[in-house]
Amino acid sequence: MRVLVVNTGSSSLKLAVLNRDGSVEAATTVERWAGRSHLEPVRQFLGSVERDVGRIDAVGHRVVHGGPRYAEPARIDGELIDHLDSIRDLAPLHNPRAVAGIRAVAELLPDTPAVACFDTAFHAALPAAARTYALPREWNARWALRRYGFHGLSHAHATRRAGKLTGAAGARMVSCHLGAGASLAAVRDGTCRDTTMGFTPLAGLVMVTRSGDVDPGLLMWLLRHGGVAVDELEEALEKRSGLKGLSGTSGDLRDVLAGRAAGDPDCALAFDVFVHRLCREIGAMTVAVGGLDVLVFTGGIGEHAPLVRAQVASRLGYLGVDVDPDRNEDSRTDADISATGAAVRTVVVTAREDLEISRQVLDVLAGAPLPSGRPEGRVHRP
After folding, report:
1. Within the chain, where are the H helices?
2. What does DSSP say about strands 191-195 and 3-8: parallel, antiparallel, or unpaired?
3. Read out DSSP for 162-211?
4. What is the model's pTM?
């Protein structure tokens, strides 16, 4: 059973073929992918897979936002496509690209069953107290306003893998997905109880170019009294804030750390703000699950920045977090980096959304008959 995993980014298209045991049999990245009409590189990859590896049995698509309707992975049909078109304003940078990927692959593999795997699904069962905004209730009902949460595929894999590494599958965990985008998930018994991102992926932690949480009154002040236009504010919060905005660098943590080491005060402050917010929110997530047994780091920064992990451990020692300095520095793959005797296990997990997508595809297709028909969907008219 081979699953083609399709992950569409803002400009690229990542394709990987996984066997049932999770091994990657073929993979490629189409840089500057132009959308549904850009079929030739996808066709070439699928042709090489069929020639060198074998038949593709199913397709799994990463979709960032499932909206209020999809709380779990779902087989792709026209109705699902219509829904994704109708909520494209909830994830304008991601969902339209995912739909383009779904339609492109369907043209080349029209008879192969396909499943949409949503980043929001992992957070769909958040308790009402954690998901509800204190806004007028008619607003919440009219526009389905709630904390949706993101990075769910990564958090799902990281916590499952951490459970295997520590033997504590039902433990109270905080998963830290730290990359260009960053979020935390509070997980107990495999279920997410709280998360830092909200209605959009802009909320929560300080990120590479995104601000994370900002006082809404401050934003209104900028709009009313600062002469900042709505489009300018959106662009600044998404692309010119976070580590980039504070440090004056690219925002890549490696550049920030290099500037900090060279004595740049802006880079030093950017790093301190990043770590402070991260530790504060880990504390909040710990409250959400009633304690902490396992702390999980994943994502580009989570996996490759031992200084961040060491700083977090030093500030959360009162919770029982303690890492072994050598294990922390030498960690290169899935590993337990806890200090001997530490009350909280700290682990580093390689981000593998593709494994989680493949697992979800196999579960969905094993559970029900496959849909018939090609997943075209109607064109959405706003």
Report:
1. 40-52, 78-86, 95-108, 128-131, 137-143, 152-166, 216-225, 230-239, 242-247, 253-261, 265-288, 299-304, 306-315, 325-330, 353-367
2. unpaired
3. HHHHHT-TTSEEEEEEESSSEEEEEEETTEEEEES--SSTTSSS--SS--
4. 0.93
Place of tokens 């029982």: 320
Catalytic residues: 119
Residues 6 or more apart whose CB falls under 8 angstroms from that of 22 comprise 355, 358
Give the span between the Cα atoms of 59 and 264, in whole angstroms: 48
| Per-residue model confidence (pLDDT) at position 94 | 86
Cβ pair 133, 145 in contact under 8 A: yes
pLDDT tens for 303-337 read: 999 999 999 999 999 999 999 999 999 988 899 99
d(CA 335, CA 346) in angstroms, rounded, equals: 9
The SS3 call for residue 268 is: helix
324's tokens = 């072994």
In a 3-state reduction of DSSP, which class is residue 313? helix
pLDDT in tens, 257-278: 999 999 999 999 999 999 999 9
pLDDT at residue number 10: 75
- Degrees to nearest 5, angle at CA 40 with 38 and 46: 120
Mean pLDDT of 154-170: 94
For the chain, how long is the longest CA-to-CA vector? 63
CATH 3.30.450.20 fits 3-118, yes or no: no
| Fold equal for 3-118 and 166-353 | yes
CATH architecture of the domain with residue range 166-353: 2-Layer Sandwich (3.30)
**Residue entry with tokens 């492109």:** 104
Confidence of residue 379 (pLDDT cuts 50, 70, 90): very low
Mean pLDDT value across residues 137-163: 97
Domain residue ranges in the chain: 3-118, 166-353
The residue count for the chain: 382
> Residue 327, Cα to own-chain centre: how many angstroms?
26
pLDDT of residue 73: 96
